[in-house]
Amino acid sequence: MTHQNLELFFYKSRRLYSDSQPxxxxxxxxDLLMEPPAYISGYERTWSIKENKLYLVNLKIHLEKSCxxxxxxxxxxxxxxxGNVNFGKSDKMPIGMHYxxxxxxxxxxxxxVLAEELVLTCGQAYPSEPEExxxxxxxx
Length: 140
Prior knowledge:
Shape: globular
Number of domains: 1
Largest sheet: 6 strands, mixed
Order of helices and strands: EEHEEEEEEEEEH
Helix content: under 10%
Radius of gyration: 16 Å
Strand content: 35-45%
Oligomer: single chain
Number of helices: 2
Structural class: mainly beta
């Protein structure tokens, strides 16, 4: 995983950071943004999980069109998002230019609704990553 801005999530009165990007799967993302979706990683996004629903709270980006019709009390319900958001639960393990954690808090969403809260190992949280990215094999 390369360095990128982390997404900020509020969950159970805690501030959590993740490299997961629920906004990338928005079906009308290219219609909303002035710039192509490939460039959205440079922008700041804040999310909140309230009553088991995922909401986009703050989006510092220039929007082409307003999302006001899609809001609930000023929050954008992320009903387009199905997938996991992973948060590191232990110390970072630097691996070259990458980093990983031994354990992750993984929140699984279905259509923006929290379906499951899990604790996963690195390999379970990122099954498509090469195994060496989950283990520090560097000898100092």
